[in-house]
Write a structure and sequence with these properties.
Beta Polymerase, domain 2; elongated
Length: 399
């Protein structure tokens, strides 16, 4: 975006495409006698055309209004929002509306202790986190805090007011800063970044759910940006060991496709093993299938081993073959070599030809699947029959 000036940014904002559903909400607020502005990420994303933003980002719109709270309750018409007591209402699908306000102290490092309604959009913008999010547009007029338009032009993240104060109010802003730097290829001004580093320990006041969500979104960035998390001191926010370790993201050709794959890849790049990650998974709010998937990855060695991942990906009975395939592809192995390989003899054939059942059948099938996962060329009926006979002989059975 080099060379863009303030005039260009203002023209870009004036061209913001506001969806019909959002325009309808804005019209309803104006009919009720209020002013209303689009604020926050919608404007930033439009100007920057953020390649790292998720689909949810483009569906969610933040508005602010000076309409009294009781009027917003009527417009919400029963649509509930968990932030209502903090002045946030849902007035349509993907449309959140907040009261223009000033805020009292943040007693829980997340929410203000009291809300002070204000009719002044400029006062409302001055309570926000970063200057690029403190720009408002009502469809005609643009209002911004100091540096807001210039920082949009420079793709720069700067705290509104004193960075230390903004981050102590809500330490989640620290994690958002690093995530936005990575996903949106943005820089941070020196004071803001230094305050984030100095206050990294404050992020432990944020719930684990929110810390995890920010980190997983951060990992959607390019591999080259992964070092930002550690450089900013954010590893302590994930409660990982502070042992000396260097992030070697260059071992990966691409980021894994899945969120769990990226989490494992980052940990492997930093520590060379996922053993600590398996313990960590026991006390973090992860999806139900993640801890057993990490345990399976640990049983496969738990360290950098694309060949072992490829074998696990090819196993017909592999419950977590998707994770091994994801990691192996990210390490550079061709997808065609990672497809599951089904035995060329069916289970019924093996049962009938060798009169097998129960535990012995299970062991035979597991051994065959492991063998052809390691070497798919062995998956020929006669070769498999020979392997079954060898197994039965070695096990003391009739052969």
């Amino acid at each position: 975006m080099g060379g863009w000036d303030v005039t260009h940014i203002e023209r870009r904002i004036q061209a913001l495409v506001i969806p019909p559903a959002v325009l309808e909400v804005m019209d309803n607020i104006r009919k009720a006698g209020g002013e209303v502005y689009v604020v926050g990420g919608a404007i930033r994303r439009w100007v920057w055309q953020s390649r790292g933003a998720s689909a949810a980002d483009y569906q969610d719109w933040d508005l602010t209004t000076n309409l009294p709270q009781e009027a917003l309750v009527r417009l919400a018409a029963g649509q509930k929002h968990p932030g209502e007591r903090f002045g946030t209402f849902r007035l349509g699908e993907g449309v959140e509306v907040t009261l223009m306000r000033r805020e009292g102290d943040y007693q829980d490092a997340r929410h203000p202790s009291r809300l002070i309604p204000t009719p002044d959009i400029a006062a409302d913008l001055n309570r926000r986190d970063f200057t690029v999010n403190a720009v408002a547009f009502d469809g005609r007029r643009i209002v911004a805090v100091e540096h807001g338009i210039q920082d949009l032009a420079g793709r720069r993240l700067r705290a509104v007011g004193r960075a230390e104060e903004r981050f102590r109010e809500d330490p989640l802003r620290i994690l958002r800063l690093i995530r936005m730097m990575a996903l949106e290829d943005a820089s941070a001004d020196a004071e803001t970044l230094q305050a984030a580093r100095d206050l990294a320990q404050e992020t432990l006041k944020v719930s684990r759910e929110r810390r995890l969500a920010e980190f997983l979104r951060f990992l959607e960035s390019d591999l080259a940006a992964w070092s930002l998390w550690d450089q900013a001191g954010m590893s302590q926010s994930m409660e990982w060991p502070s042992m000396c370790a260097r992030l070697e993201a260059g071992r990966w050709v691409n980021p894994p496709r899945s969120a769990l794959g990226r989490l494992a890849a980052y940990h492997l790049a930093r520590y060379g093993t996922i053993q600590h990650l398996r313990t960590w998974a026991g006390w973090w709010p992860l999806p139900r299938d993640w801890p057993p998937a990490l345990a399976e990855l640990g049983r496969a060695g738990g360290s950098w081993d694309p060949a072992a991942w490829a074998q696990r990906a090819r196993r017909e009975d592999g419950r977590f073959a998707w994770l091994f395939r994801d990691l192996a592809e990210a390490a550079g192995l061709p997808a065609a070599e990672l497809e599951r390989v089904r035995l060329s003899l069916s289970t019924d054939q093996i049962m009938q030809e060798f009169d097998l059942q129960g535990v012995v059948l299970g062991r035979v099938l597991s051994g065959l699947r492991g063998a052809i996962a390691a070497e798919p060329l062995l998956n020929e009926p006669d070769i498999l029959r020979g392997k079954i006979r060898d197994y039965l002989c070695d096990s003391g059975n009739d052969c």
